[in-house]
Fold these 2 entries.
Entry 1:
Amino acid sequence: MPLLLPPSVMSLDDILPQEPLLMMGAGPVPIPHKVSYANSIVINHLGETMNKVIEQVKAMGRYVFQTESEHVLGVAGPGSAAMEMAIANLVTPGERVLSICNGYFSRRMAEMATRVGGLVTVLEVPNFEFAAAAAVEEALKGGDYKVVTIVQGETSNTVFNRELEAITRLAHAQGCVAIVDAVCTLSTMPLEMDAWKVDAVITGGQKGLSSIPGVSLLALSEKAWRKIESRKHVLTHWCLDALLADNFWNKKSYHYTAPVSGVLALHEALRLVCEETLPKRFERHLVCSKALQNGIEAMGLELLVPEAARLNSVIGIKVPVGISADAVRSYMSRVHRVEISGSFGLEIVRIGQMGEQSRAHNLFRTLHALGASIQYAGAALDLPAGIAELEKGLAQESVTVA
Ligand SMILES: *Cc1c(COP(=O)(O)O)cnc(C)c1O
């Protein structure tokens, strides 16, 4: 048999735009130069240099998660891999799980818990509402639950679970392990793992942390770790086995070859968070997101979620009747070189406010591009009023958002 011939392909130069698009959607988000530089380096995955990097990633991770737990683990994989690691290690087959579902990502946790043999009860949260602690308290009374899963910010429909702390405390009081998906929210708004009695926090690289996709972090409480250590069954997931991952992340030995470049990138992303400090970072995200939301409304557009349940990390915007969200996005991308997200089935667009997205210059460019693209599609908007409102929102605060 002759060998198969190589395919004819284009070089990346012919595929990628000459100037990268401004990534203002629901992730991945723009990364700082230090992060992209770190991502270009390959080092030995074992040895003294890597050990130093790992120790710092864990220390900075503890700060970002607000935990003193020793069990901060990196994961080679997307946020969903960190999610699967949390679920697979903490849900014992046959155990009852309460999954609080607001949308697509919180439902993914319910699905994963079912797949590993958990007996999952879904607590459906009505559309565009946050999960109410009272409803969770009621649901917890109904069964012998061992695990509760919940998302802090539901990226898919831009809902914010503002009663998260009360809910994780309730879960803790009932003897449950509380698993929180903070992929889009971590480091953009408060989440205090120890104080709020959270047992597992899941995050990804490419959203709140402004790192690359594909390398994620999972933090486990002491209580979660004891549950994992006392596990009787052998996990079917070898790569995601927390006890094996512990060999690399805490015992300087081998599990699998860590994605060294991605870990270096994450190191830099975390270092930038530490340098900025969490309070200042939360403030920057809040100011930027609110100013953008007000600008969008002043322009004459409607936000998807009422303020009480609205997420600041990802903003959902209704597209005027008769106008295609896809057409708006493609014009924005082609003409203004700004990329935003659509949604799963809804006629909306979503703009992210995570990490480097929350910078004044990016907001002006994005709001202008959105308004101009919707106008081009045929709707009447007051673009100058929107920009003026954005400027006002950014100017009245003392924080540096540039
Ligand atoms: C993006 C996201 C995920 C999934 O992350 P991937 O890296 O795409 O696997 C999970 N949960 C939330 C809240 C997200 O925003």
Note: The chain has two domains: 33-276, 277-394.
Entry 2:
Amino acid sequence: MVSLIIVGVILFWGAFPLPWTTAFTPLSSTGSLTHREITQMAILRKTAEVCRDIATAEGQQFTLVIDNRLTVSAVRKACSSSVLSELRFYGAILGIYLSNAAIDAVFVLSAKHHVDNEAFREGRSLITQGVASVKFSMQQGSYICARVTLGGVCHTLQDFYSHSNWVEMGNTVPFRNLTRPDLPLNNLAGPDTQTCRNCIGQNCGENILPEILLQKKLTSGYFSLFFSTKPAGKCSHGGSSDRTSTREPVGGINKDEISSSHGSYHYRAADLAINATMELLEDIRLAAGNLAFLGLMGLSRTSLLAFVIDTTGSMSNDIEVAKRVSFNIIDSRRGTPNEPSEYILVPFNDPGFGPLIRTESTDIFKERIRSLSASSGGDFSEMCLSGLLLALAGAPPFSDIFVFTDAPAKDSELQNTIEAMIESTRSRVTFMLTKPFSSRRKRGVLESQRILSRAMSQPEVQLYRDLAHVSGGQAIEVTKSTLSQATTVITDGSTSAMATVLQVMRSPAKAENFSFVLDSSLSNVTLYITGVSPIFTLYSPTGVSQSGSETDGPLGSIQTVGNLWRVKLNSDVQTGDWSISINATSYYSIKVIGQSSVDFLFHFLEQSERGDLTPKDNRPLIGENSTLFLSVTGEDSVTLTDVFLAEVSGSDTVNGTITAVGGTDFLVYLQKIPEGAFVVQMKGLLSNSSSPDRFQRQSPTQFRGSRVAIKVQSNGIVEPGNPFSLSFTLATNAAGGNYTIQARTDRNFNVSVPGSLTLDEGGSAQGTLTLIAPSDTESGSDVTLTITAVDPGSTDSNYVTLRLAVMAEVTDFTRPVCQVVKIKADCPVVCSSASWELYANLTDGNGTGIAKVFINIGNGSLSTSQVMSENGTNVTVAFYNASCCSPEVQVVAVDEVGNVGTCFTSIKRISDNNTIAIPTTNTIFSRCYFVSVSMYLLLCNLIVFFVW
Ligand SMILES: *[C@@H]1O[C@H](CO)[C@@H](O)[C@H](O)[C@H]1NC(C)=O
Ligand SMILES: *[C@@H]1O[C@H](CO)[C@@H](O)[C@H](O)[C@H]1NC(C)=O
Ligand SMILES: *[C@@H]1O[C@H](CO)[C@@H](O)[C@H](O)[C@H]1NC(C)=O
Ligand SMILES: *[C@@H]1O[C@H](CO)[C@@H](O)[C@H](O)[C@H]1NC(C)=O
Ligand SMILES: *[C@@H]1O[C@H](CO)[C@@H](O)[C@H](O)[C@H]1NC(C)=O
């Protein structure tokens, strides 16, 4: 089928090839369900169920209907009443389905990743290894890594339903054995079993042999992009890209789209894939717990506060201020909806930096800050960027990071790596620079120290300014006495759901007029202006103006701290076209932000070898066309009118061509990636207000293209103590030469990589990288590896950022067993007057042992005790007691490696009003589900998708 989107694309793109899909289409296909939609639907439904269960347990109403019509916005609202940023929820979902889609680009030729070629065992092993890795990562709070792995696992799981004959055999429930290595895989069609016959012309309705379906033998289609060979009599995948389908038996069996060989089964396959994905998510939720599950989905309390603090001797005064400022911030947000759910602290010095301290406890965090003391620091510059890199790698995407320092960065060679991390995490960095220009000479200070504490030079400060600006943050130059006033900035910036309306910087300064649109979803709109003696005037839509020197004017109040002017608009902000005219002596920056759940996310896409659009997470190629996948958050539907790339250092723009792909998701085709840094801006109409409500948003993060591309073939496992190798390809569309390669991890793991690679004009070259994780690295830890390539003239660079899971081999495949041994239920008609009880024995056989036991369904109380059975095994005895009004219970036992065993019991007999519990053991039924996980230590895979 030629979908509408593809029609649109053909109109705009001329000779765009038809998509030769070989799995559910990764991201877009009108009329058929894509991996994106299947994954998102399963996540939304499961997340809504989790939120419903939490609400029910807390005795609260939950009215959202859980079906395939759920939207991101509706689930977010039902899950949290506060003004949480929707960006992180959408971002988490996006992270999962983009890693799902990336499988089609990275593992294009791997049969097991797509359950092609009857690779059922290998596919199952990928799934179960991956699920175990997800659980380990969640245990360590490594949600980003967990999402990447989960996306990949979902791809293989979902492909099973499209590529096998499970649906054709008449099955109406997911194939549970595929996610459980403890169950057999019976009835696989053997290597010599013929499974298909020729299609009749284009009609593949009955090409699977009747006896295969009758005997319920499992098979899947063979696939190859290059060769037509396949074992005799085997089914093919089908479609124009599959060479095997031209050989007898001709035709295929895939259900990827409604136009596929078995397209008439497409919706049934997709529906089963959604349900199978939900079952997988349920297993993860039970192993990790509801809170961790919501964390995985970016729905836990979302704000994180990260401080990177200089502890060298020259900071001795400032460090006290930094401490005071941090305490103020922490205290002012305690008990409010903005209370951070996590804190990160990274001290840095010279030559030392780190370690990264991460905690959810306010008290521990304050204690850690209190114990910082300023000392040593051999010379003037310090390891500021190394400290910042740790924070960027450790914090979730879209975090706010504050750096306190008074000295230039000694490790300025990390600038490229830092920019790469900022682009890929979209975190915002704000520098608090104390007295950057004035002499810090103090009375009574030794002569030698006086020399050490000179002021920073312009270029040294500019590095901080540039990095801040690339990230959408600011470099605020303050004196010791005004550092504490700068707190307001930190407080503003770290409230959740802050959307950027406009951000520009001019260095050198140039008198200019900037206009921007404020919409009705925005509140607490604030402008930040930094610069040297900036002169500015703000104009409202009705022409009311206020100059920068009016601290309390008709439009808002203005506060000044060092080089920062903060303009807080009055609360009854007028919607419509605003403008600001500005000039300054050397440079200025303007930033307009406001609280709103309406925001947007985007990713660059590239065309995979299979012809689909798949994600890429590094710099697109300068001068070439590109496509953005863009999602608007906070609304159920929205109209986009403009999307464009705006050059940072000028006023040139590249306009995109917008195609809606359902919900609030869009594809934006861009003719050409500009030379210099750019931001993405969008304009549109909010649809939920009566009058047209124009809005605009801008990416706070700056991006840039590159003339060099890095692609990594990452397919391995980081096992503690063992070398881990990966190969990468460097390619350029420019003159070539000797490219400098740098690779480093946030954990200072030993990495060896060629220092440079030489490319011919328009050519490419291969390199190999080896990394070793210390043998005592804990399973589930992740490591962020950044590889950067810099061109011979040091004017251009590109990068790849990989998040790898470190894991030691796991051999426990045994799931806990839950056995109900006794139920006492004597429940009268009026249920509230009595209670019932249950005893269950929980064991883990030869496994790693039961790590936790809890109630997932039911609101009674549970207690456990340990006993030794006659044959010497450990038994956990669970005693459950509940009101007769709560007639159901699900007991869950999780072992040390995340294998889950559950038992469900109900004393409910369906009756007319459904509230009466009848006491008789005959009505009691009990079933146990187990999920077991086999596992190897595992690559958590990459966060990144590759160029080229
Ligand atoms: C995009 O660029 C590629 C590579 O240069 C080219 O083959 C393709 O035709 C371009 N697409 C459009 C629509 O111009
Ligand atoms: C799945 O596992 C069950 C055991 O729980 C087994 O009876 C069944 O044959 C298996 N199905 C297939 C298709 O292998
Ligand atoms: C998927 O699950 C939903 C809800 O649990 C159910 O209504 C539907 O029938 C299931 N579909 C399939 C194909 O199993
Ligand atoms: C605006 O910010 C203030 C604190 O600065 C906060 O108390 C208030 O709730 C915010 N208003 C809205 C609508 O969020
Ligand atoms: C803007 O400021 C610069 C530097 O002070 C000055 O040279 C220039 O004339 C100013 N431009 C306008 C239009 O005022």
Note: The domain at 302-441+455-496 is CATH 3.40.50.410 (Rossmann fold).
